[in-house]
Fold these 4 entries.
Entry 1:
Amino acid sequence: MRRSGLLILGLCLTYATHAYSQEQTEALVEQGLQRLEQNREAQAEVDKENEAARVLEKQYIEQLKIVDGLNMYNAMLQRQLNDQQTEIDKLDFSISNATQIERQIMPLLVRMVDALENFVRLDFPFLTQEREERIHGLRILLEKSEFSTSEKCRRVFEAYQIENEYGYTIESYKGRVQLEEQQFAVDFLRIGRIALLYRDLAGEKVGMWDPVAKQWLALTERQFLRHVTKGLKIAREEISPELITIPLYSTLEVR
């Protein structure tokens, strides 16, 4: 009986020991599995951090490229700004000179118009109203601020050119002549600035301007009537140009 009891007790102790060992083993296995899970989670976190680091590195490299491009662009802009500043300095200098030149040109233009007016007054009295109106228009133009100095110069030079062309052209136009106390309508014949003649509308009387006496002179010689009539036709392009005889004021006899 006693041996049986000891055997049973030994079996119980053995079973208990085996059960305890199995529990210990299961606990260790459970701990191992938990650690493996923790390691997998830690590795996943590390991989995640590594991926984030690679993304940041890639973004950093891209940003460096952008910064390099911006630095090159800024350098190019700076060169352009330097060139523009150089041009601005040149323009400022030109404007300064232009202002000084303009201050000198305007008085010159006024003197030119004065000289032109005096010239017209001393010249043969042809197209008097038209020429005086042109000079009056120039004086008004010079006082207008909305016109540039270049435009004012152009208009003054244009007026001089017109006056210059009168010297080598032939022209016919209508007007009136004051001879002594009589005034009558005539056809004028201007031959450059050599002679200014007239013929009355009836085609009977002719005369010319005496630049020395500053008056109209009647021409009594019949040949002058013929030549003045021919000259009027030439001026009107009714006949081909040909030689005509005109009187010289120094040889005229005042009638």
Entry 2:
Amino acid sequence: MGLVVALLASLVGASAAASPARAARVEPIRLALIEGLSGSFGNAGEAVFRNLVWAAERINARGGVRLPDGARPLEVLRFDSKGTPEEALAMLRAAVDQRIAFVLQGNSSATAAALVDAINKHNEREPGRRVLFLNYAAVDPVLTNEKCSFWHFRFDAHADMRLAALIDVLAEDRSVGKVYLIGQDYSFGQHVVRKSRELLTQRRPEMQIVGEELHPLGRVKDFLPYVAKIKASGAQAVVTGNWGNDLTLLVKAAREAGLEARFYTFYGNALGVPAALGEAGVGKVLAVAEWHPNVGTPSSDAFYLAFRQRFPQPADDYLHMRMQAMMEMLAQAMERAGSAEPLAVARALEGARLDAKPLQGVHQGLMRAADHQFIQPLYVSVMQRAGSAGVRFDNEGSGYGFRTVRFLPAAATQPPARCQMRRP
């Protein structure tokens, strides 16, 4: 046995001597992307992956995360949840088994809620193997209110923040007297329909809500029956939080049916929607987001062009600024903490401002310590032909882009915090 051990040791030593680069390899800081990377919303998951990879590449290109014991690169690993909370929990267990301490997820508030609960329990049970959850798109307000967690940070504006901006624009449109509400039948979609009714009743009590519809998440292949109801109702505007293929197929059906209503959306500016609508969407599809390609500043234009250079295929065009902010702020927090340990990183994220040089002049924001909700500007934009005033860039090579109709600075988007956070 001693001879075998000695032989193995000599082989390892010889291998290290022959391959100094391998011996000197720096252990990366691994990030687990738990997302639907296949199935009905696989395209949305792949768009997320491209954004996170690009952000990691930029951080690594400038030396990685600078820690006291040396700089370390970021590595994004894929864990396919197949779009279900149950599979996401299985992927969380797989990531924990691999001792990955940072989990990234966003496409589905139901999945995010399940992950928050599981991570809370895991961190209490195993404080030596804590996990930090960074959320870039799950926008149900409860996640930073009633279900807020010290171990969860949200980098997207939540649904009420987005909806307030969108409904402000809708309420000022005096040509609209009838509105139809439609959404996906899960926590986020239900909340958007309910909150839309509340806000419209407050701001335009004379406006008629002529229909409400909740449909199965990711299972409807033909939205023509839903659009027929909208058309029969006489609605001049539709409010929807739909995303991914549920939004693309909805607007395709609207075009085919000749529906003239304006669409007030959370995600109408990407993932196939402009191409699906074509000319029928000009002046009729509005979206709300923390940024869009036609913000119009030189810094923003340059940043977007760099993304398009990295991903030149039109189908790969979907730059999420909030994901870039999340990755930059994570790297900054690790450097301020001098550690990649989740508790230290979480404390460094609380109250942090986005001040990374790559995003200066492009985006800004503050991670509110009270509830771990990122406070950032919002834009409401409307679909127009590329090349028209204010629309330098199109979406996904469609020939159509979006022009700003309302800008809200970060200070104007802050909701009250209702979080009662338990801190370790």
Entry 3:
Amino acid sequence: MTSFDAIIDEIAGRAAGNPGRTIVALAGPPGAGKSTLSERLVTGMAGRGEKAAILPMDGYHLDNGILEARGLLPRKGAPETFDVRGFIDIVKAVKAGGEVLVPVFDRDREIAINAARVIAPVDRIIIAEGNYLLLDQAPWNGLAPLFDYTILINPGIEELTRRLTERWTGYKLDAAGIDWKLNGNDLPNGRLVIENSRAADIVIDTV
């Protein structure tokens, strides 16, 4: 298994040969640990003297009102419930350089907050993280040429089930609510990511 330090070395090496921004795609199913690894990577890069920032895909959830009107609210988190074009546009803007304000998803309130995070001009390495960054289906595959390095986290369905059950239990859902979240949405989305993502530069099974 590739070590965390080896991943940091690889990213730093690619950034050293890139005069502009280096965009790292960190993809994986719900509950895989993308947010945790993103934070670790930013901290690890800081230890190398590199300025890094996180660009979360979750900020591009469609609003609940739009999802409800389209009959998609129960499937929130599926590929069709995101503003993919908006996300592609922001990745292009980030890659071009300069300050970029990006939205962040508030899971407690289930809303995306606009301009909630700053990617500063000094941030040379950007960790884009989200379920579908490597999904080999339109329109998501429009992201492919924008990434300089790609990572896929795949802990396996059994471990994902355990983590997601723990997550939704923490949100005080009853057994029926947890069952729907798992089998009606999260695990189907997770299998889609595992089975239909493009080959990543590296695949890891734990964070």
Entry 4:
Amino acid sequence: MRTIDEVRRAVDAAFAEFDAPSWPDPHQGRRVTEAEYGRFTDPERYRVLSLRLKAWSQVLSDQFGITVDHDVPQHTWAPADVDDPTTVSATTTAWRSPRPGALALRVTTMDVDGQTFIEIGIDADPVDFAIIPECGCDACDPGSADLLTQLDDVIASAALGDLTVVIGPRSTHPDADPDRADPTFLIVGTGSGWFFDGDDPAEPAEIIDAVRSGDDPHLPEDCTIHHGGGWLS
């Protein structure tokens, strides 16, 4: 079995061929200024995320038989502050492993007014558990290294088989679209830790540990749990 460190080195080598943009954390050693909120100085440099995805897909396809299927329904999500939805274009793919029981990811690459966003969910589940970046304005810019770390963490976690996604009951509002209804909470565990969104669930780390070990996580009814085998062999 190839180790994840070997895979990461292969991804780094493939990524180095793309001449991707790179920039430091603009807020290192200083506070965010009010003028940076809502300002987008160089949105096109966020294409670094799509190039990193390309490097991952090349390595995983060549070495582990991961298929990247483009024949999947596209998402229409866009950040809430986008005034004109026609400025948003998206390409959605499904990343599937030939290994039995492995999770399949749905990966959407969006262009919003020239800026790249990556949205990730479990294939066949309408809820997306990661959006990178969550905001692309200058105030929220963490630098390219942090953005790539966020993306690498999710892909590597799926490859290793420790990705765990717990989705709380969906909204029951009568006007809610059942295919896009927001969950009451979302817990995501990766190899580097966990995060949650929505209502504060009790002991997210313990819930993730229980799911991974096969124990009862003591969740409310109508929760959805995604956890499967890895892609590496």
